Amino acid sequence: MVLGVLGLFSGLVSAQSSVTMYGVVDVAVERVKGATSLTRVTSGQQQGSRWGLRGSEDLGGGLKALFVLETGFNADTGTLGQGGRMFGRQSFVGLGGGWGAVRLGRQYTPMDDIVSIIGTKTYDVLSVVPIIGNGDYNRVDNALTYVSPTVANTVFQLQYSLGEERVSTNTSADFAKQASAHALYAHGPLTAGISLMRVTDADGVLAGRQGRDAVLLVGAYDFGGFTLSGYYDAEDKAAKKLKVYGVAAAFKFGQTTVSVGAAQAKDVNGSAAAASDDARLYTLQASHNLSKRTAIYGHLTAVDNDTASALGFNSPVAGSNSNGIQVGLRHRF
Length: 333
Hints:
Elements: H1 2-14, E1 18-33, E2 37-43, E3 50-60, E4 63-74, E5 79-80, E6 90-97, E7 100-108, H2 110-115, H3 125-128, E8 139-147, E9 154-161, E10 178-187, E11 190-199, E12 212-222, E13 226-237, E14 240-253, E15 256-266, E16 279-289, E17 294-305, E18 322-332
Antiparallel strand pairs: 1-2, 1-3, 1-18, 3-4, 4-5, 4-6, 6-7, 7-8, 8-9, 9-10, 10-11, 11-12, 12-13, 13-14, 14-15, 15-16, 16-17, 17-18
């Protein structure tokens, strides 16, 4: 059996120009306050715990085949993430060349790529505030994506997802269909990006289309040992638009990085009612590299909710403050 498995893997490697296995194991201890206070061990707080395979094959003439299969898991319990999917983080195949790349399968959305400039960690603002591009639609199934080559220091990405592929007679036949795009500029110390997303039907239960549109702007400038970033997100949310804007500053001291941030969330529920559903969020984070692959980290996020806002941790209560603090260990392989 062992010889058979080794022979299969050897055949796989020989058929590819390259195949790489990689992964992350990340576990933290945290104290969160919401409806109640709770101390727990949890997985994937600086980076989602995962393992994966990525590879490419040279097809000649500048053309290559590529693939990624990536599994998420909960390192604190040993269970699969993403609802128990085998390759719930990513699973796609594609072709690439000097003209760019086309990918088919389950993938991150262009908006999630832009969010990553400022952070997609559990304690980051645009994770605590449930924006669509880093929440329900940070990854999508049945997606077709085009990634351009770099043009004037800018990469463009276009994506269309067929959603759940429901039959045409279904009253919500367009559930989860989405189209999105981004432009990402990176040159010297400046990184900037814009992303647009349109979800044809974000409900899936009510008949017809309950669409949602979103736009995200992000910028970051590295002054050398000090990086300043800012962002603005606006998207449909019931009667009003949810808006989130904030700034963050990161300071690097050798192998240690410390960052602080503040943000404002407006119309969190999108309600037209008189009660205020705004919130203010404050973050403090630190990470120290023990080696190229291993780091220890600490995160603190505090949320100040108005009367009708319920953002935060551990089933937060509307009108009450919520916060979380954690210390963790992350190892890449």
